[in-house]
Amino acid sequence: MQDYNRAVRTVWRVTLILAVVTIIEVVGVLVYPKEEAPMLPLQLFVITLTLLKAFYIVAEFMHLKYEWKTFILTILLPCLGFLWFILAFLWDGTHWLNQRGMELYECLPGLFG
Amino acid sequence: MSPFNVPWGKAMMWMFLVSDAFTFGALIISYGTIRFSNPTWPNPEKVFSAFPGLGEAYLPLMFVSLMTFILILSSVTMVRSVQEGVRNNKAGVVKWLGLTIVGGAMFLSCQAWEWTHLIMHHTTLSGNPYGPAAFGQFFFLITGFHGFHVFSGVILNIIVCTKVAKGDFEAKGYQIVENIGLYWHFVDLVWVFVFLAFYLL
Questions:
Q1: Phi, psi at residue B193, to the nearest 5°?
Q2: Do A4 and B87 touch (CB under 8 A)?
Q3: Closest of A102, A93, A26, A15 to residue B32, by C-alpha
């Protein structure tokens, strides 16, 4: 019974965190002075908060935090592949752009400006 | 002896979810590739600024934030259902799973409205007023694939909820609720990244 009560409290606490983080993300995007300031800080900000939300969903809602370490590693280690997956394919996109005679930082202020 | 200490149904659901994560990852990353390769790209605040019933009012990202809250809340009701299952409370499982189904249906309705609104305002697979046609193509492909997952999840939840209500799991326990719950949370997890890629960045 005590375990049950604690688990229920945890769920509502995590719900509050997810809701507040989402509000911070949206407000951050809407109030950031995109015309004057570089976009990179804002992008790193929303990516970090998204990873934080993902952590809470996987660890608490999907309960992965409470599994055996062998199981956690079996799930998470293959996901390391995403690091190279993302890097390689964004690199590829940049290359295409350069083939078109443009530089990323000139034409995509939304990403590197 | 088990190396993992989880029931095999749950282990297999996790294996499926890892593979599905790579499917969604491939879609979202290819969106990134095409976006990086284009000199211009639509500004999401301009594209997603409408709200049902409020006509031409400029409310950037408000409707999609509401959709996000609906999906998060339906994940919460799903966790509650699993917790009631752990302590063998059949009525609790049915109640919270029922609310999860309602949340999923609400999310799908919101998505239907959003798609209709975009298509009526000329964002289609062949082009859009904001930038490269690839924007609309990836948007409909990825949110459509995600929406199909939500739809499948709602169907699974309805099936399991009906069986629980009939008392099918009274003898063997409610592990099945945890398994479909994992699938449901995964759909929420993917939405967090779709939200990042299409609406925040």
A1: -80, -35
A2: yes
A3: A93
The identity of residue B43, as a single letter, is: N
Do A67 and B37 count as a contact with CB atoms less than 8 A apart? no
d(CA A75, CA B14) in angstroms, rounded, equals 7
Is the Cβ of B76 closer than 8 Å to some Cβ of chain A?
Answer: yes
Distance (Å, whole) CA B138 – CA B63:
20
CA–CA distance, B88 with B144 (Å, rounded to integer): 36
Q: Is B4 on the interface with A (CB under 8 A)?
A: yes
CA distance B64 to B199: 8
Q: CA-CA distance, B105 to B70, in Å (whole number)?
A: 10
Q: What is the pTM of this model?
A: 0.92
> Scanning the structure block, which residue is given the tokens 């995403």?
A82
* Angstrom distance (rounded) from CA B125 to CA A105: 28
Decide: B61 and B45 in contact? Cβ < 8 Å: yes
Is it the case that residue A106 has pLDDT exceeding 70?
no
Question: Is the CB of residue A96 less than 8 Å from the CB of residue B37?
Answer: yes
- Per-residue pLDDT tens digits for B35-67: 999 988 999 988 898 899 888 888 999 999 999
ipTM, two decimals, is 0.92
Residues counted in chain B:
201
Q: Is B167 on the interface with A (CB under 8 A)?
A: no
Q: Tens of pLDDT along B96-129?
A: 999 999 999 999 999 999 999 999 999 999 989 9
